[in-house]
Amino acid sequence: MNWLDEIKWDADGLVPVIAQERDSGDVMMFAWMNREALARTAELGEAVYWSRSRKKLWHKGEESGHTQTVHELRLDCDNDVVLMKITQHGHEPGISCHTGRHSCFYQRLEDGGWKAVEPVLKDPESIYK
Amino acid sequence: MNWLDEIKWDADGLVPVIAQERDSGDVMMFAWMNREALARTAELGEAVYWSRSRKKLWHKGEESGHTQTVHELRLDCDNDVVLMKITQHGHEPGISCHTGRHSCFYQRLEDGGWKAVEPVLKDPESIYK
């Protein structure tokens, strides 16, 4: 049995994927993969997601140079969520977020509102030329 | 504007939620919340999910005693994924998984197959009496 067959793909043929920076433990981003994206990710050792908005494979870093080396793939107890241990390339510290921040999870709930609490490390205009 | 209104709920009125153990950085589980579950989580300071299979609110630990204190709520750049920093209670080390393991992400891709690589810390039969 192929390891891809063991995944419980959702009604759209997708699985949610969490990317965690291996060295810091930081949760960097959350995205989706279809079967082809996950197969490519495993084959390349680099994150290839499925863009739900653009409806196509999205090799992370293809425009920004901010690729992600995938060290390890994990699957949860229900076989329907993937966790990846990654190294984020292209900047030090790593930038996973399209806003130029380290992690996509930069908004913290404080006093009844979401506050951006992490710095922009690089101007997004200069990331996506 | 209410902070709950800023979340982009999906077509089913849900948002994906990642629970990360604050002290270890380990990603413990992934689940879903509806508006009421997230409101209750913030109010209680304990994780309350929406069970998609049972179609009801699920106060984590209500049966097992393995509750989760929520220290921090984070929202991603697209306002459609929540990350929580938690402490897992009821066992040392914490057990988030219904299989009696520390984390739900205990299967690792190795040599083309998913291998369970984390120990069962407590027999699930004795967790859910």
From TrEMBL, chains A, B:
Its cofactor is Mg(2+); Zn(2+). The keyword Zinc applies. Mg(2+) binds at D76, D78, D80. SUPFAM superfamilies: HisI-like (SSF141734). Signal peptide: none annotated. Pathway: Amino-acid biosynthesis; L-histidine biosynthesis; L-histidine from 5-phospho-alpha-D-ribose 1-diphosphate: step 3/9. It catalyses: 1-(5-phospho-beta-D-ribosyl)-5'-AMP + H2O = 1-(5-phospho-beta-D-ribosyl)-5-[(5-phospho-beta-D-ribosylamino)methylideneamino]imidazole-4-carboxamide. GO terms for molecular function: phosphoribosyl-AMP cyclohydrolase activity. It comes from the Bacteria. It holds the Pfam family PRA-CH. InterPro entries: PRA-CH, PRib_AMP_CycHydrolase_dom, PRib_AMP_CycHydrolase_sf. Binds 1 Mg(2+) ion per subunit. Binds 1 zinc ion per subunit. Residues 29-106 form the Phosphoribosyl-AMP cyclohydrolase domain. It is found in: Cytoplasm. Keywords: Amino-acid biosynthesis, Cytoplasm, Histidine biosynthesis, Hydrolase, Magnesium, Metal-binding, Zinc. Belongs to the PRA-CH family. Catalyzes the hydrolysis of the adenine ring of phosphoribosyl-AMP. Homodimer. This is Phosphoribosyl-AMP cyclohydrolase. It comes from Roseateles agri. The gene is hisI.
